[in-house]
Each structure stands twice: as C-alpha cells, then as structure tokens.
Amino acid sequence: MGGPEIERLIDLLAKLPGLGPRSARRATLALLRQPQVRLLPLASAMQQAARVVRSCALCGNLDSCDPCTICNDPGRDRSLICVVEGVGDLWALERAGVHRGLYHVLGGTLSPLGGVGPEDLNLSPLLARIEGGETREVILALGATVEGATTAHWLNERLAASRIAVSRVGQGVPMGGALDVLDDGTLAAALTARRPA
Amino acid sequence: MGGPEIERLIDLLAKLPGLGPRSARRATLALLRQPQVRLLPLASAMQQAARVVRSCALCGNLDSCDPCTICNDPGRDRSLICVVEGVGDLWALERAGVHRGLYHVLGGTLSPLGGVGPEDLNLSPLLARIEGGETREVILALGATVEGATTAHWLNERLAASRIAVSRVGQGVPMGGALDVLDDGTLAAALTARRPA
Domains plus CATH for chain A? Predict the structure, then answer.
C-alpha cells in the first residue's frame, strides 16, 4: 500500500501482545503522521532501553542498573523475598506498594507437560540466595494455576528442611468482586481460606 | 520500577491509539524480554520509516516513494479519483481491492464548529488536480458523519459547474448486518437508498 517500510512497521507492531493487524495499522498511521514528535522519540526510547536495560543478577528484575533499584534500596527488608513468575507480576506488586522486601523473578513456572523443568527457571539462584544468608521468609506470589501450584509445591519441598518460613499469597474473592460472577475454583478457595469474621 | 528508560518506553507506547498503560506495560515487557529479536528490529523499522516515508505530493497518501505507488501505477484508471478523509480509509479500500482509480487524501473533514476550514485540508490541490485534466469522475468516500456530509456538500458545490461527475458512496445495511441492531439513521438511509429487487 505504501511501500515495504510501512508494511514492515505494521507487521512488527502487530506482533506485540494486545495489538493485532487492525490496531497496528492505526498505531502506524498515528506515528507516521507525526514522525518528529512520535515516531523518532519512540524509536530512540527503544534503542536506549535495548542498550541499558539488563536482568538484575540477584533477582532477575529488569532495570537499567544491576543490581536493580529494588535490590540496591537500603530501605527494603532484606529478610523477606517475594517470589514471582515474571517481571510483570513484580511491577503489579510495586504499583500496589504492598511489599517492602526484595523479589525473585523465576522467569516462568514449572510445567512438566510443557517441558519446563527446574533448570529452565531462575530457581537455583533463588536457593543459593536463600542459603547465602539473611532470608527469614519466602512469599510465593505465584499464579493460581496448575503450573503456579506445581512451582510452589517444588519450592516448598526444597525449603522444607531449612528454617525459613514459606508462605503463599491468599486466594479468594477479589476486592470489589461479586460472588455470583466468580468461577467454582475461586469460590472453593475462598471457602477454604475462611477466617473468623 | 526499573529505571527511567523503561518508564519512558511505557509512556510513549501508552500514547499510541488502541494502547493504554496496561497494554503498554505488556508490550514493553515482551520487547525487553527479546531485545535483539523484537526491540531493536522495531526501533530500526521506525527509524527507517521516519527517514523514507513521505506524503505523496499528488494525492496525500503516505509512501516511501513520491509520487506514491498508486499514483505511479500505469494500470490505474487516471480518470477516476476517490476522495477519502485519511490514509487509513485509503488502506481499507485498497485491502478490499474495490477501487481501480486514483485517490485523494483530504487529511480530515470540514468542521465549522471545530474550526476546520477548507484551507486546513488538502482541498485546493484536489481542485487544481481536477482542473488540470483527465478526471472524469470524483467519488466521495467520506464518513457518514455531519463533518463528512459537510465536506461532501462543499466539494459538490465547487464541482457543480464543471463537467465532472461527482458521486458519493452508498449508505445502508452493512454486508452481513442484521436490521434490528442498526441505528435509526442507517435504517433511514437504507430505506431512502432502496432499489428495485
């Protein structure tokens, strides 16, 4: 329609999660309409990010410094490690501002059927980190999926012999959620996790 | 969360049409996870597009050559000009493969209330193009909105004195569409545009 450069830009944008061919075309048009204000700044932000962003050698977080801002923060409780599947989960917890300890990003979950074993994840560094020192509690903030439960089980077994407390995030009714729209699994989990009112 | 570079990338992506903060974060993570395979190629495709893509001096289409591929195509019917509001409309018609003539992109619609006058649009070049020569018919493929109708009316008046046929795209029930979900305006237009069965 407008030469290979436009086609290539649409194709690459359409591969991003949340975008399809239709929204990729809209985004491409919006960018091409203001090349100096939108297209070039975005291109340069991408190159800048590609140059400086690294996985934190300690926790697996993505950051432009290594160790990452969180691992470097002296105000964080270093005895508390929250284990998450991905950096997106870490971001969600940080936005909520509900965890004052450190993190450990696994980079996925164990999936025997999917062929993901312990050696494919950032698990050994977690065990080494815990053995290394000051950890008092490990919070498993993994998804409420079969794979999340499998991973939590594996970690729980590995840490059973240590003196470290291992906890899992609670399951139940989301804040603001109505009961009649929840699935059976969530309702069962909510009943099991009942507490004195 | 991960330094200013990541924040900036999320902010710029979130400004694209169809994306919000949430999908921009997902897209950023997907890009950062594979910097060599996804992030850098997209950045370079953007810079390449910014360098080569121009507005066609004849019709206003976006293309890496000027005049654009369509204006340059000897197989196109040069006596037929389809007038559209934006390049996105041109793309839609080209995907459908339903127009074999040339195009003219106005870059918007007349909007007296919104302060968009004839001089703000690519209208004079269209009139010059038509006066210049071989045009036999002008098809107004403008949106079925107040602004689209205003623009069509303005063009129709300007071209009334010439010997050029001016037509508007048909309005009515979309292909595959059920009548009971259509709005009153579309139903009225469909009745008015009725034809012998």
Answer: 4-52 (1.10.8.420), 62-196 (3.40.1360.10)
